[in-house]
Every structure is written in structure tokens, then in C-alpha cells.
Specification:
three-stranded antiparallel β-sheet, two-stranded antiparallel ribbon, 37% helix, alpha+beta
């Protein structure tokens, strides 16, 4: 609520006026238009209902992209660890990781090509149609084979 004060003047003698105040309390969500009180509380609710699905879609999409970035960062960390291991040690190292189910492939030519990939389920309904669900996060690295 806010206080609206207005003043009126009343003649108390021949040449002097006395100032009086009229105090009105007005509701913050009501306004006076043409002498009729209007209520606009429903307008904010309708606007909120219109914006809410778009806002939730954006929040869930941000969460999904964050999960993809974290998963890719984890795979890059695992890749830096296994790049120095031999082909026989790689499966035992990957079985220790319980957070992600990681598949790998190694091709040996002049270069040793290592590919790590894992599947990530998306939670955003609209993003599932744009990206494949489950989304496959893949990391590849080529190392000179010695």
C-alpha cells in the first residue's frame, strides 16, 4: 500500500486560507480510472503462465548442456590417463570408473588412435528431438605409436 495525500484549502477569514490534507490509502494493484476501481492481479498470473514453459525449457536445456560438458570433460581426463597405458591395461583402468559406462576402441598404425564414448540420457523434452537420445559423447585422440 502507499499513501496518497492531497490538500485542499478552506477559507477561515477574509484574506487567509487554512491548508488541510485529505489522506487516501490506495491498493498497489488497484488504480482509479474514471471513478471505477480496476483490479489487474489476474494479468500477472496469465503472463507468468505463458512464460513458465519457455523458462522451464531453457533451464532444462542448460542443465542438459552442462551435463554434456561435464561428461566430455570427464572423458578427456580419462583419455589423458589411458594415453600412456598399454592396450592390455586399458580395460582394467576403464572398469574402475563406476560413474560412466565407457566404450573404447584402439587402432594401431603409425599412430595409435584411441576413441572413448559414452551415452548420456537427456532430460529436456524438446531437446530430445533436436539431439539424438541418448546423446553419445565421444572423445578421440591420436598418439604417435612407438
Amino acid at each position: 500500500m502507499y499513501l496518497n495525500t492531497s490538500f485542499y484549502y478552506e477559507k477561515n477569514s477574509l484574506f487567509s486560507y487554512k491548508k488541510y490534507s485529505k489522506i487516501k490509502f490506495l491498493c498497489y494493484n488497484c488504480y482509479d480510472r474514471g471513478g471505477v476501481m480496476k483490479n489487474n492481479r489476474g494479468q500477472a498470473l496469465v503472463e507468468f503462465v505463458i512464460i513458465l514453459p519457455v523458462l522451464l525449457l531453457l533451464i532444462f536445456a542448460l542443465i542438459d548442456f552442462g551435463r554434456i560438458i561435464v561428461c566430455r570433460n570427464h572423458l578427456e581426463g580419462v583419455m589423458s590417463e589411458i594415453s600412456n597405458l598399454t592396450e592390455e591395461e586399458i580395460p582394467t583402468y576403464l572398469n574402475k570408473d563406476k560413474d560412466y559406462k565407457i566404450t573404447y576402441s584402439v587402432k594401431v598404425d603409425d599412430y595409435r588412435n584411441i576413441t572413448l564414448s559414452t551415452k548420456l540420457d537427456l532430460i529436456t523434452p524438446g531437446l530430445k528431438s533436436v539431439l539424438s537420445n541418448p546423446y553419445i559423447v565421444k572423445v578421440e585422440r591420436s598418439i604417435v605409436y612407438e
